[in-house]
Each structure stands twice: as structure tokens, then as C-alpha cells.
Amino acid sequence: MVQTNGRLFEIVSPIVSDHGLELRSASFFGPKEFQASWKRSGDCIDVKISDYLSDAPDEVVRDFSGTVIRTIVNRRPTYGRTYLEWVTSDEYICSKRKIYLRRSRNLTGSPEGNERTLIDSLDRLLDSGLLDPAGIDNSFFSWTRTPNMRKIGYCSPMMRVVGVSSALDDVSVPEFVLDYVVYHESLHLAQGYRPGQRAHDKRFRADERRYPEYEKAEGYLRSLRMGSGEMI
Predict the structure, then answer these.
(1) One-letter-per-residue 3-state SS of 50-83
(2) Which residues contact 182 (CB under 8 A, 6 or more apart)?
(3) Are residues 64 and 49 in contact, defined by beta-carbon separation less than 8 angstroms?
(4) DSSP structural state of residue 106
(5) According to the model, what pLDDT value does residue 228 have?
(6) End-to-end Cα, the chain, rounded Å
(7) Beta bridge partners of 23
(8) What is the CB neighbour count within 10 angstroms for residue 196?
(9) What residues are paired with 50 via a beta bridge?
(10) What is the pLDDT of residue 111?
(11) Exposure winner among 5, 134, 217, 223, fewest CB in 10 A?
(12) What pLDDT sits at residue 2?
């Protein structure tokens, strides 16, 4: 039986009732990524919301809960300004990123690798003018503990965290390849947190191709994945 959080239940229950449903339970839970989940049985629903919002003001939780309930009843999920302003504030990011990094078991928590540092890649990209300092403001870069070949890099725009596979922490890997991966993920940081929108949209793809050695870097990464025996 899920342990209901009284405060969350009081916030969510009226929203659920407005849609002709009954709230059976409401709780916070703690996966690494920010998310919400639910179970529906007829008109009764159980809702779980990321504990990254457990200490947020009531109006923020209410705003996001409305998005969740609209999704449950098959309406277009729209994200309110109150919620978006809260989760994109520096205060929220700096506070919750610490938790996110603790839960990210495959991140070393450092941009310093055995052979290379991600800071050098960022410096080269900034010096070349490919990156704007404002686009990577209040962000954190880290190597992964294991050399994931299928997912060379990833970004959490909400937490402003970039992870780069330690498979690239090797002097045999050309610098332009590592820099390209850092550039790609930094473009996601520059996009910012924008739920409900495509990450790799037309503008992103155009910016991605501004990288001078885009084709060579993509080709190298394809060969690297194929050589590992993993699916591309």
C-alpha cells in the first residue's frame, strides 16, 4: 500500500475532482530523473510525483499536478508559468542537482578523467565561438564511471548536468570527437528545460551542423559503436 502524503493529497484531490475522478492516494517518490507516474482503475487514481518538488511551494506543486491530471485524462499537457519559473531558478537547480548527482550512480561527479578533462573541451569550444558562455551557465559536466558505447553523452536540461562516456577519456580518441560530444550536449543546455517540446528540433540540428568537423565526428562515433558490438 502506497503511503499517502497528506499535503500532496490535499493539493491534488480538488484537481482530480474537477475532472470527475477520485484520488485514492498521492505520494512523492525518488527516482533519479524528475517524473510523475499514476495508476487508474475506473474513476479512481493513484498519483506519484517526483520528490524534487516535495519542498516546493503549494502553488508550484498545484501547477505541476494540474499538468499530470490533464495527461491522465488524455488532455494536452500544458506546463504552467508558476511551475516552470520555479524549476528553472538557480536556487532550485543548485539545490536539487546535488540530489540528482547522488542518484546518478554512473557519474564520477568530476570533469577530470584519467587522460582528459572536459573543461579543456569547453574552453576550446568557447574560444572558437561555437558556445556562448551564457548557454552553459550554472551547469555541471562529468565523466561516466563505465564506458557506455551506446550512449556516448547525455544531458539533463532541468538539472543542467552533462554526462560524457568515459569511452572518450582516451588519448587515442581524436580531440575533435570529444569536443563534438561536449558541443552536442551543451546545445541541450542552451535550449534549457522545455518539457513537451522536441529536443532535436530543426534549430538544434542546424546548430549541431555548425560544428566544423560534424560529419567526421559522427562517422567516428558510428565506427566506435559498431566496433563495440552494441546497437547504434
Answers:
(1) EHHHCCCCHHHHHHHHHHHHHHHCCCCCCCCHHH
(2) 118, 121, 122, 125, 141, 153, 162, 164
(3) yes
(4) T
(5) 57
(6) 40
(7) 45
(8) 9
(9) 29
(10) 98
(11) 134
(12) 60
